[in-house]
Write a structure and sequence with these properties.
Strand content: over 45%
Number of helices: 1
Number of strands: 10
Radius of gyration: 18 Å
Distance between the termini: 16 Å
Order of helices and strands: EEEEHEEEEEE
Oligomer: single chain
Strand order of the largest sheet: 1-2-3-4-5-6-7-8-9-10
Largest sheet: 10 strands, antiparallel, barrel
Structural class: mainly beta
Shape: globular
Length: 200
């Protein structure tokens, strides 16, 4: 399936451009075994001219037929190619970026390609309950692998120590899986997975 790349993207967003849009679909909690709870998710990736994607995902528990039972959770964050930030980048806070972007061409973005033929990326994802994840990973074509470098928890947050996520575009659908190590010293275990279709 051919991917159409918007013409107004900052060059370094192009490797992530296949994520853009709103995706909706169903999934299962845990390993997806019989008896695992079902959920529905709506996930949006959008850009505003800056060199990162804004991400939001809302999820609801459902019955087997997909009828929503109650809200499950919301997460939000930012995804970007990994590179050293400079005066051409916004922040911290409201410090404005220079008018000239850090990366002005596809050739400059190509210089970021890693030894595996992909691009190193970061994703910062924030959850209710005082939890924030910083992921590092790689995007290679329509495939993403992420692993937490750090999980920050508030003083009253539930225990949560590490996670990995994988995403892939298969026949136009977004497949993802999330593994979590909730307690210190615990191995990563299947947390959730879903298949989402692009709706806009």
């Amino acid at each position: 399936m051919a991917m159409e790349i918007p013409t107004d993207l900052t060059p370094e967003i192009v490797p992530l451009s296949w994520l853009l849009g709103t995706w909706e679909g169903s999934g299962r909690l845990g390993a997806g075994d019989e008896g695992s709870e079902h959920f529905f998710q709506s996930a949006t990736f959008k850009h505003n001219g800056l060199p990162f994607l804004q991400y939001t995902a809302e999820s609801w528990l459902t019955d087997e037929d997909g009828t929503k039972l109650r809200p499950l959770t919301v997460e939000t964050g930012f995804w970007a190619l990994e590179r050293k930030l400079n005066d051409a980048d916004v922040g911290p806070g409201l410090i404005p970026a220079d008018i000239v972007p850090a990366m002005k061409s596809a050739d400059e973005v190509e210089e970021l390609r890693n030894g595996n033929g992909g691009f190193d990326i970061t994703a910062t994802i924030v959850h209710p309950g005082g939890i924030s994840e910083l992921y590092y990973g790689q995007i290679k074509g329509p495939q993403i692998q992420l692993a937490t470098d750090m999980v920050m928890r508030g003083s009253q947050s539930k225990e949560y120590n590490a996670a990995t996520r994988i995403f892939g575009l298969v026949n136009g659908d977004l497949f993802w899986r999330w593994d979590v190590a909730a307690a210190q010293g615990k191995e990563l275990e299947a947390h959730a997975s879903a298949i989402l279709k692009k709706v806009s």
